[in-house]
Amino acid sequence: VATVNGTSRLSLPMCFVLCLILFAGCGSGSERAGSSGRKQITIAVSPLLGSAAIYIAHEKGYFKDEGLDAALQIHPSGQLSLCAVLSGKADFAAVAETPIAYAAVGGKPFAVVATISQIERGTLIVARKDRGISKTSDLKGKRIGVAPGTTGDFFLHIYLATSYINSKEIRRVDLPSEAVVSALLAGDVDAVSTWAPQTTALEDKLGGNAVVLDEPGLYVLTWNLVVAKDLTRDDPDAIVRALRAIVRANRFIAEQPVEARAVTARNMGSPVAAVEREWADSKPMAVLNQSLILQLEDEARWILERSATGQEVPNFLDFIDAKGLKTVVPDAVQIVERRE
To answer: Which of 133, 192, 260, 310 could form a cystine bridge with 138, CB 3.0-4.6 A?
Structure first.
């Protein structure tokens, strides 16, 4: 575990360094028909409520109805799901906007094809009361665990900034995504900045020793469907079919919420009660909004300020492919596109 104090120089997270090595043309966009005659696709996904439509489309056979044999590839974070796409090991990834901003800054070839969920209180700070933490100012001097390059990383930044706490006043501890929960439970850190369902698990396991720090309305997590750039050129039909299945799953969520929660909980490996507690915070959708571009630009500026490379903020229109969503739900695309 590496500890970084204050505002030390930031390099891109190791995940993206590895993707630079592994990425070799992303041949995942080619059509691959299985014995069923359906097109085979792999969707990299992590256990967040934002993935509900993917789980439902898979379990209810909506992907199959669209002529797709969809395999779900499970990862502990959206960041690693995006790496699977960039390295050619998956065709689609469900991922929050922070890893997307990192990948764009790194010049990786990918495209966002839809935002499939927005999650209020999707990322929080959970602290241990027995470490003398009961309010925001108590974070000063404390060890705060975070997975670099994730929404937890960005949320920690904006939470400290809006609380008038200098980053030099905390002791930052960089952790792998899968080690965040265990680090706080073991007392290796005093608090963590992370996302649900990790936050819910920590609240349940720490019980009365858990302190949740949040500022309502400060941050809304977007959960996005991303593909390798090659797929938009080589097999745009697969994108259209996948989006149709997700839109159909969203209708199921609206019409059958009880069963939708059960399916989601089963796929996340979480108790139904835990999913029900978070359900109202998650809004399923299939859109491409200008607000996503603005959020990505904000996060890219944060990344570049920390890296001090002098690089300019990417043009995120280069990382959006709206053609598939326009085919499925034309009114769902509200992005100001560049003029040819």
So the answer is: 133
